[in-house]
């Protein structure tokens, strides 16, 4: 079979205006970027707000492993499958970050015959949204330092500048820096650092905003520093929110592209799920729900991270009520969770699959905490045996749900028809009754403990007095009703990335907490998680090049 990029290049794409027409978007409200991608105008989005909503389906997964799970591929495949059985469906996924693309993760547009195209553009500069977010974030950084240089009218304590710079690249050397060196003309030297763009609060703000007015209001209330009396200095105090909104005006508009089967796909926003809230933009999801009968979206990494944040942050803020959840698993990943080394995954191992199913079972149980029906999608690999697949089906049956074998990677929509019918049946039964994991009025410390104990199955949460005092101070300042965003390794229910399966009675150490007042959540940094990743020993960038015919190679 051809590689992902070869399949993508052979795609029989249609004009983006034809894709928009499938959702009733007039040509004049599509702002084209070439022939195969476009942004949707704010005027059109505003005009459809009175329409009723379609049905929202969340695709999530077991904890990721080097063996691969295929969450985005399944999202695309299910969207195509629903269209194939006659359901007007759109998919909503995140944009790709350059950091992991050139690092170790590769692209983020699906795979095989379940892809979104144009693949190369989506994995590189696309429509420039991430560049705009990076520029807006760093404009604020420059204006903070400029404000201090020209007299510091806000009385910012140089030791308490909370706003770091960002770059959409994995670069460990920038995690901690000293800036403004070189003499009086360059400002006041201080310690600073960089995060990756997808960890920027500006990214979170854009992805949670409903329109430009909401965007500017949220930008304005971001906390950038503190005074000597510990009172916060907001972005609006630096008068940066207006110019930042101008930079983000087009980035705020959702991007429309297509699957290999020419079905509509909204690709917009891209916060990571291990260090941010891990969902595509609210404006893309809510717009899709106004235009399609079924909307398939995904949340980053495993269900303990992306799906938890989707349910407790995105749904809470946007008023979304998902009707079904698909948990993606592969036989290979289950075997890794069962203790098998990556090099040995090709051999049949019933015992390892059975052992690895405990990870899947934990996610099934967790998703039911939100009152939403669950189905398991087994993303098929050629090395899977019938006996191994049967183990998963029997296990999920014992958990009160079903597992459906999906062959979308090799067969496209034909490989997800069974999953599509199952999802429609679940939704038509009307059994979903979404509820968040915790109430708004629960204390911040209790919210952290609730997630750690009910989702991660931890016995204790280690928070020292300094962190507890900080949480209490934020509650006194009126931020106690905010949800929490856990920054934790994606590879395990614990903070140890090597602890696979479904561990219990462990400790979740909280290293620091950060207030994202604009985005509207508290970031809780657990264990050794980094907000600026580094490159691996052999980064993917070493294999990416342009061939003799001018084509990009090595993205997958």
Question: How are the SSEs placed, and which strands pair?
Answer:
Elements: H1 4-9, H2 16-22, E1 30-32, E2 38-40, H3 42-47, E3 55-61, H4 71-84, E4 89-93, H5 98-102, E5 110-111, E6 114-117, H6 119-123, H7 129-149, E7 156-161, E8 165-167, E9 177-179, E10 190-192, E11 194-196, H8 201-208, H9 212-220, E12 223-227, E13 232-234, H10 241-248, E14 255-259, E15 264-267, H11 282-291, E16 294-298, H12 303-318, E17 324-329, H13 331-337, H14 350-368, E18 374-379, H15 386-398, E19 403-406, H16 408-411, H17 417-429, H18 444-454, E20 458-462, H19 465-476, E21 484-487, E22 506-516, E23 521-526, E24 545-546, E25 552-553
Textual characterization of the structure:
The chain has 556 residues and is of the alpha/beta class. Helices cover 35% and strands 20% of the residues. Strands 1, 2, 3, 4, 5, 6, 14, 15, 16, 17, 18 and 19 form a 12-stranded mixed sheet that branches. The chain has a 4-stranded mixed sheet with strand order 20-22-23-21. Strands 7-12-13 form a 3-stranded antiparallel sheet, with no helix packed on it. Strand 24 (545-546) and strand 25 form a beta hairpin. The mean pLDDT is 95.
């Amino acid at each position: 079979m051809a590689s992902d990029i070869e399949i993508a290049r052979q795609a029989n794409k249609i004009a983006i205006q034809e894709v928009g027409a499938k959702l009733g978007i007039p040509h004049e409200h599509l702002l084209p970027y070439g022939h195969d991608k476009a942004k949707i105008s704010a005027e059109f989005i505003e005009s459809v707000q009175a329409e009723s909503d379609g049905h929202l389906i969340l695709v999530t997964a077991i904890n990721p492993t080097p063996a691969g799970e295929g969450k985005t591929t399944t999202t695309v495949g299910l969207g195509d499958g629903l269209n194939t059985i006659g359901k007007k469906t759109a998919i909503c996924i995140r944009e790709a970050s350059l950091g992991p693309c050139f690092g170790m993760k590769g692209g983020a547009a699906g795979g095989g015959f379940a892809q979104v195209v144009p693949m190369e553009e989506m994995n590189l500069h696309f429509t420039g949204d991430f560049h705009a977010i990076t520029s807006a974030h760093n404009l604020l950084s420059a204006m903070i330092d400029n404000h201090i240089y020209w007299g510091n009218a806000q009385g910012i304590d140089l030791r308490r500048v909370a706003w770091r710079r960002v770059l959409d690249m994995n670069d460990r050397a920038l995690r901690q820096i000293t800036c403004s060196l070189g003499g009086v003309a360059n400002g006041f030297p201080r310690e600073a650092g960089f995060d990756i763009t997808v960890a920027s609060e500006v990214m979170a703000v854009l992805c949670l905003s409903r329109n430009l007015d909401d965007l500017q209001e949220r930008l304005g209330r971001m906390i950038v520093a503190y005074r000597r009396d510990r009172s916060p200095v907001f972005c609006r105090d630096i008068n940066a929110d207006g110019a930042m909104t101008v930079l983000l005006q087009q980035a705020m508009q959702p991007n429309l592209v297509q699957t290999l089967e020419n079905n509509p796909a909204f690709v917009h926003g891209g916060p990571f799920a291990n260090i941010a809230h891990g969902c595509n933009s609210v404006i893309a999801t809510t717009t899709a729900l106004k235009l399609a009968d079924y909307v398939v979206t995904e949340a980053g990494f495993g269900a303990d991270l992306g799906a938890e944040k989707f349910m407790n942050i995105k749904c809470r803020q946007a008023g979304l009520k998902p009707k079904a959840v698909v948990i993606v698993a592969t036989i290979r990943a289950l075997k890794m969770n069962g203790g098998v080394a990556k090099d040995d995954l090709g051999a049949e191992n019933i015992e390892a699959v059975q052992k690895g199913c405990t990870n899947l079972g934990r996610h099934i149980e967790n998703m039911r905490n939100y009152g939403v029906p669950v189905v398991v999608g087994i993303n098929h690999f050629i090395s899977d045996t019938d006996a191994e697949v049967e183990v998963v089906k029997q296990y999920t049956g014992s958990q009160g749900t079903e597992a459906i074998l999906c062959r979308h990677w090799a067969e496209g929509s034909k490989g997800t028809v069974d999953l599509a019918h199952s999802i429609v049946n679940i939704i038509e039964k009307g059994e979903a009754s979404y509820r968040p994991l915790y109430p708004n009025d629960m204390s911040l410390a209790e919210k952290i403990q609730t997630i750690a104990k009910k989702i991660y199955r931890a016995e204790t949460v280690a928070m020292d007095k300094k962190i507890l005092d900080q949480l209490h101070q934020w509650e006194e300042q009126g931020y106690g009703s905010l949800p929490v965003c856990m920054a934790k390794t994606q590879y395990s229910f614990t903070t140890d990335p090597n602890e696979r399966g479904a561990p219990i009675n462990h400790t979740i150490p909280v290293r620091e907490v950060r207030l994202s007042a604009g985005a509207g959540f508290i970031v809780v940094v657990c264990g050794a998680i980094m907000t600026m990743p580094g490159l691996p020993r052999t980064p993917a960038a070493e294999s990416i090049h342009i061939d003799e015919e001018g084509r990009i190679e090595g993205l997958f």
